[in-house]
Structure formats: C-alpha cells, structure tokens
Design goal:
alpha/beta; single chain; five-stranded mixed sheet; 357 residues
Length: 357
C-alpha cells in the first residue's frame, strides 16, 4: 500500500510528462504514533518487556500499519522465541508473511541501482561520516564521481537519509554523519533481508539466527535515536526528568590522533536552569561496564575542556546512563557511583502519568 501510494504520487508530481510536474508548493509530513500512544499499544497487546519495545520500535518506529500487521499475525504473543525471531518469522518468512515485499516495493524499486547500493552500504555501518561512506561506495561500485549526487538525492529529495551534526556545529560542518532515517528500511537492509535470503537455502533456525544477530547490531544506534526522541517528547509534555531548551544532540570530533577521539551519545541542554546532561546509551544495562564508564567519563571531561565545552563552566553537569531496562541491583550500584540511570520503564511511567499533556 505504501509503495503504491508513493509510485502514484511520483508519477503525478515528478514525471516530466505530467501536467503537475515541478508544481509542488508544500510538503506535509505525517508523523508516526508518539511514544505515549505506542506504550499504550504495547500494554494493550501484553508486551511488557522494555527490550521487546526497543526491538519493535527499531523495526517499525510508530507506524500504525505495521503494528496492525503484528496484531493480525500474532507477533506480539509471547512464547519461547525472542521478539526479533517472532518479527522476522511471522512477518517476513512465514507462508502468510505480509511484509516480505514491503521494502522491495516501497522506494527501493523506485531508486534502483547506485541509490540502493548506497543505502545498503549505509545500513551496514550507520551512522557514518561522508568520507567513510564515499570510500566504501568507491570500493563497492568502482566509481566515486556520482556519490555526492546520489547522497544529496537520498537526503533532500527522498528524505531517506538524515544528516546529523554534533551539538553546536555550524551548518555544513565536515563533522556531519549520515544515517537512514526510516527504521523499517534500515532494519530491512541491515538485518531482515539477509535473513530472508538465507531462508531460501538454509534451515529456518539458521536464517533466524542471522537476522537476530544483525538486528541486535541495528538496535545500537537506533536506541540512541529512541532516547533522543523520548527526551524531546517528555519535555514537550512537561514530563520526564530533564526539561529541554533545545533539541537533543550527540557530540563527536575528528581528531588526527585516534587517542584524542571524543564521542558522547547524548548532550542535552537546559539554558534556563543552567543544566547540561551527558548520556551514554547501551542496548543492555550490562554493557555499562567499568571500562565503558571510564571511557564515558574521560570523553565528558575532554569535551568540557574544549572551546565548546567551556561554555558550560559553572553549570550543573549530569552524567546519565541509558538502557532499555536496569535491574534494581544494577541501578543501585551505578547510582552509588554518582550516575543517574534512566530506562524505558521510566519513560513509560512518566508519559502515562495523570496530567501529562
């Protein structure tokens, strides 16, 4: 359905032979379900695991159509299989799989050729700097001359690729990174399509294993995006633990010496209260290891020593750890070390609280 609508609208508005060619005056963006609605859907469907929430969102975002397919196919039903296995099996591999053609008929057949190749390369290593992506493109296709054109088309025309800049970066910064903006398309290219291809020649269990492992890798950068969106939604609704005065960004630099690399997943600012929050996102609480915490702390200290970071001198600086779910003992242990722990259960509770706008 989505692919059909896009095909018809493209023919109507962008075909040079169409009377309406080049006459588009406005674009209307229809957003997905917000997280407050999505958490309610999860509750209604008996999906109570925050890790499962991440898996479903990393594939379907908040697109109602996809969750309707999940309900119809019984994908929400808890059994001995992981959420990743249920999604891949019931929606892409089973005899009645309703979504196996969705990504192929939606945009990918419209783009074809090098545009699709560029999306595939990006799906394997996102978010990715332009220099890295250009090198991978040249190695894969043997020609880098058309790279900039295809990338600009994916960013500006199709809006399938997002251009990310570190906090306080100037427009056009060479530190920009790129990622596929649509979770479904990114998950298909990175994880689900390889599983579908494997299922044609390998046992189902092996195909599911391939898809699940790749989907775990996809969930890493997707969880960072999820946290940023949750922070923004909670702030808009007057909920949560950090009211924002600007959109949430990350920070990274491009040092010549790798030892001077600084990378922070979350940098959130509250100018009114002179608060700045630095966050580290891990798709499992256990990954906030002592070594990871040491690296996180060093990167925050190095950032505060930069010209950009010095503007926060005298501010309240918070170091916050994010994961889908923090076990009680693990949360307490991290809190005794001075860290704030925030998980998806916290956001579900904040967004469901009475009086939330």
């Amino acid at each position: 359905m989505l692919g059909s609508i896009h095909t018809e609208m493209t023919a109507l508005l962008e075909d040079r032979g169409s009377p309406l060619y080049a006459r588009v005056t406005d674009r209307l963006n229809l957003d997905h379900w917000d997280f407050a609605t999505l958490f309610q859907v999860f509750a209604d469907q008996g999906l109570d695991s925050p890790r499962d929430w991440l898996t479903f969102w990393s594939v379907f975002s908040g697109v109602p159509k996809f969750y309707g397919d999940c309900a119809y196919q019984g994908t929400f039903a808890a059994d001995d299989h992981s959420a990743a296995d249920r999604i891949i099996d019931t929606l892409f591999l089973s005899a009645r799989a309703p979504l196996v053609e969705e990504a192929g008929t939606w945009f990918l057949r419209e783009l074809r050729g090098a545009g699709v190749s560029l999306l595939r390369l990006l799906a394997r290593q996102q978010p990715c700097a332009q220099q890295q992506l250009s090198a991978a493109y040249a190695e894969s296709l043997g020609d880098s001359r058309s790279f900039a054109t295809y990338l600009a088309t994916l960013v500006d025309r199709y809006r399938l690729v997002e251009r990310l800049s570190p906090v306080f970066a100037q427009a056009g910064s060479r530190q920009a990174r790129y990622q596929i903006g649509d979770n479904f398309l990114a998950a298909w290219l990175a994880a689900i399509e390889p599983a579908v291809q494997a299922a044609r020649v390998q046992p189902l269990a092996q195909a599911l294993k391939i898809g699940a492992v790749r989907l775990e890798n996809h969930e890493g950068p997707t969880f960072e995006r999820m946290v940023r969106k949750l922070m923004a939604e909670a702030s808009r609704r007057g909920a949560g633990d950090f009211p924002l005065t600007d959109m949430v960004h990350g920070y990274w630099n491009r040092p010549r010496d790798a030892a001077r690399l600084v990378e922070i997943d979350i940098v959130a600012v509250n100018e009114d209260d002179r608060r700045v929050r630095f966050g580290s996102c891990k798709r499992a609480a256990a990954r906030h290891t002592p070594a990871a915490l040491t690296t996180f702390g060093q990167h925050v200290d190095d950032f505060l020593a930069t010209a950009i970071g010095r503007r926060f001198k005298g501010w309240q600086a918070e170091r916050v750890l994010y994961a889908p779910d923090f076990p009680v003992a693990e949360r307490q242990a991290l809190q005794t070390r001075g860290y704030v722990c925030v998980d998806l259960n916290d956001y579900q509770r904040w967004l469901a609280a009475p009086g939330t706008n």
